[in-house]
Design goal:
single chain, seven-stranded mixed β-sheet, about 425 residues
């Protein structure tokens, strides 16, 4: 977890980065990884003009994808790979996944879930088509990955063994005041992003898949190296982790990046959202610490792990196999709703949209110590976070209330030093 000293160091680094012009990087030694956090609020059918919302929020998502497309290597830019961190849409189509009944799981009443996230046919008629349309903007131009998040499952329900407590409208100190949620079924997700869809079928860079593409692997070449990327389903079981280990073994020596929906919390802990702890409901799942212990920390090739899901940002680095560092990064901006406020939306609860914010991770592989410059950019405001004077005032309280403004900026603008990259991947250059 990022401590006070660590946050101060990051703050100073971010301040220096903002004060100085970006260094010119040799094209062959650098590239950018585009990271798309949870897009569910953009494509949410209730956030479109057809439902009385003041603007079509999906247009902000399309704007993000058009911006990425313009910066792809295939179009003369620097983006070599795109990874989406799950929760591509908002609602489910079923109340319960019957396959879970054999595990002793059943659905209980939850007034919050049943009112605001009830299954709807507009998932298929509005939300899924919007998600597909967004990725069609970059399809055929670049290798990319999409992993499933809990909202992408066919059903999400409250486990009857962990029902909401009586005063669920006031969570207080109860970690599961709204009940323990559990998702199940990925037929909808496979229909849009499965291994047999036009997005991925027969693509030479799409090198492996499992569970119909709920778990997948891609390769891409950039910065003088060939990279392996593995996308994992949320709270993967041991069978998934065994498959992923075999994929790594089949691609020896490649620097490996892993994307998964849930891993770090906003406190920088490897802990699930306390209301969506899939391992608690169904023990065949692995929680984030289990995934670290059984998979991420066991492979010398894994140097970077990315996740969304938990609203905010965090970073931590830990020694894995061989003593080599695994950098773990959370980014999720779905709760940001200044666009809704500016449009005059008034509600008892803040209306999260996303405001066009996403992550760009620029790799500089020149010199003895490679580095990744992490920056957060809004395609709506057309600015990086450090260029928006109101940035901390808008978002800090809701995401990182214990941080100072400078620390908050540092969490979205910092540099990761890849001190052991050369030693680990001396034979991995193309």
């Amino acid at each position: 977890m990022i401590g006070k000293t660590r946050r101060l160091v990051l703050a100073l680094m971010a301040s220096a980065a903002l004060a100085a012009p970006a260094a010119a990087l040799a094209k062959d030694d650098s590239f950018t990884l585009a990271v798309i956090p949870d897009t569910q609020n953009y494509v949410d059918y209730t956030h479109q003009t057809a439902e009385g919302f003041p603007f079509d929020a999906r247009e902000l998502f399309f704007e993000q994808m058009r911006y990425i497309s313009a910066r792809l290597k295939a179009n003369g830019g620097d983006i070599a790979f795109v990874t989406s961190l799950g929760d591509t849409w908002q609602h489910q189509t079923k109340k319960f996944d019957e396959a879970h009944a054999k595990f002793g799981v059943s659905a209980g009443v939850n007034p919050i879930l049943d009112t605001h996230f009830a299954p709807t046919d507009k998932t298929r008629s509005v939300e899924m088509p919007a998600a597909k349309q967004g990725f069609e903007i970059i399809a055929g131009q670049t290798p990319f990955s999409v992993v499933p998040g809990n909202h992408d499952y066919d059903a999400m329900w409250t486990d009857s063994r962990h029902l909401p407590i009586k005063d669920f409208m006031n969570p207080g100190d109860h970690p599961r005041a709204y009940g323990m949620l559990h998702p199940g079924g990925l037929d909808n997700w496979r229909e849009v992003f499965g291994a047999q869809t036009a997005f991925f079928k027969d693509k030479p860079w799409y090198v492996a898949s499992y569970n119909g593409g709920a778990d997948s692997a891609q390769v891409f070449t950039a910065g003088g190296y060939r990279f392996l990327h593995i996308g994992l389903e949320m709270a993967p079981g041991d069978d998934v982790l065994a498959w992923a280990s075999k994929v790594i073994a089949a691609h020896p020596g490649l620097p490996t990046i892993v994307s998964i929906h849930d891993h770090l919390s906003t406190n920088g802990e490897r802990a699930p959202n306390p209301m969506v702890d899939m391992a608690m409901v169904h023990p065949e799942h692995n929680n984030p610490e289990d995934v670290w212990r059984k998979f991420l920390s066991r492979h010398e090739q894994i140097f970077l792990a990315l996740n969304g899901h938990q609203h905010g940002q965090a970073y931590r680095a830990d020694a894995g196999a061989g003593g080599f560092t695994v950098h773990q990064v959370l980014a999720d901006y779905q709760d940001r709703g200044q666009t809704a406020i500016a449009a005059g939306v008034k509600a008892a609860w803040p209306v999260g949209i996303g405001d066009g914010w996403m992550r760009f991770m620029t790799f500089d592989l020149s010199g003895e110590t490679p580095a990744i410059r992490v920056r957060t950019y809004s395609t709506h405001y057309k600015k990086f976070s450090g260029e928006v004077p109101e940035y901390a005032a808008w978002y800090r309280k809701g995401e990182q209330p214990k941080m100072s403004d400078l620390e908050f900026l540092a969490a979205d603008e910092f540099t990761i030093q890849l001190d052991d990259f050369r030693k680990r991947f001396a034979n991995g250059a193309k």
